[in-house]
Amino acid sequence: MTEKVLIVDDDEAFRRILAERMRNRQLEVQTASSAAEALELIEKETFDAVLLDLMMPEMDGIEALKRMLEKRPETQVIFLTGHPSVSRGVEAMKLGALDFIPKPVDVNELTEKIRQARAGRLLFVEKKNREKLKRLLGE
Amino acid sequence: MAGDEGSSFSRDSMRFFGTVSASATHDLKNVLAVIQENAGLLEDLCRMAERGRPLESGRLMRLAVELQQQVRRGDRIVSAMNRFAHSVDEEPKALDAAGLLELLAVLSARFLAAKGLQLQTTPPAAPASLPACPFLLIRLLWSCLERAASLGCPAKILELAGESAGEGLAFRIRGFAPPSGAAAVFLSAAETRNLCTALGAALACPSGSGELVIRLPAASPRAITRDPREARDRAGEKT
Questions:
Q1: Given 3.20.170.30, 2.30.30.240, 3.40.50.2300, 3.40.50.2000, which CATH number is that of A4-136?
Q2: CA distances from A139 to A83, A132, B96, B110, B153 (A)
């Protein structure tokens, strides 16, 4: 099954070309130019990974991550940033990001991360389903 | 100027230099990231061609155009950063208003975009210049833009226009929602007050105009110094 990815970045050129490279690797890709647009998309659809820019207009990546996890706790977020700082990276990971990758990115490495993200998401969903089943069975 | 005020002014200057430099280098990282992805896409296309998928010349041409655009974008940022860096180490000189507006547009683009805003600049109808310290003038205009942005911009566009004003220069900021007593709001920041003193500038918000006017008089001893202490000394003021 194909991994499904959402690329969230306010830089149109970066978004478009990264999407094309991901599609060349047989991934299903959607893009969003802002955190608000991304939040709307993840409410409607399930993504294996969200590639999220850290610094965006109106709502930054950290705030977007918090809201995404509120809406869908299984969301696997990989931060892509041109502004890597250890403190922001630690903050992102503590909040539940899967990884924090500085730009420019290595697409093959990123594709591998997305495959890991899919595995992580499926594991999370399975665990939640098992917990739900246990509750239903009164265990 | 008291010692504390002077050192605070120096700290503010350093902080401003850091803010602008960090913003410009962040923008450059984004440019490099796009160039890297373009190069990577070219590599992908070559590998696919090796496996039998034909290379489309139109696609390659679009990639070449994209690369050239990104190089131009990067060049604009580096050139602006270079001019900004020299605004600190060069002696004050006649400043061209149009060039200054162009520089501010590039330097402040990311900062304003982070607030969901765009800056539109309008140069003077005829060439206009004024001897002044470029670093202080950039700081003053930036601080006014920053404050204007914080007051709310209904159309999400801030306008900055330059014009000749007698023998001096005037800059107008429009597009924000001016509160009553707007000039005082802008001058409530000590940094802005100090910069106005250093440059001999006056701020005004004519009622009903919806704009901030920053007037710089014809060359005065104040306008060409980097340090407000020196400005006051030259003007013969007691601190």
A1: 3.40.50.2300
A2: 48, 10, 78, 55, 57
> What pLDDT tens digit does each residue of chain A (139 aa) get?
789 999 999 999 999 999 999 999 999 999 999 999 999 999 999 999 999 998 888 888 999 999 999 999 999 999 998 776 788 888 889 999 999 998 888 999 999 999 999 999 999 999 989 998 988 888 6
Measured CA to CA, the distance from residue B34 to residue B220 in angstroms comes to 46
- Identity of the residue numbered B174: R
Contacting residues for B33 by C-beta, under 8 A, at least 6 apart: A11, A14, A82, A103, A104, A105
Q: Which of B29, B44, B66 sits opposite A13 (nearest CB)?
A: B66
**Closest by CA position to A19, among listed A118, A121, A114:** A114
Tell me whether residues B41 and A14 touch, CB distance under 8 A. no
From A21, A24, A57, residue closest to B114, measured CB to CB: A57
* Topology adopted by domain B1-239: Heat Shock Protein 90 (3.30.565)
Does residue A45 contact residue A131 with C-beta atoms inside 8 Å? no
**B44 contacts in A (CB within 8 Å)?**
21, 24
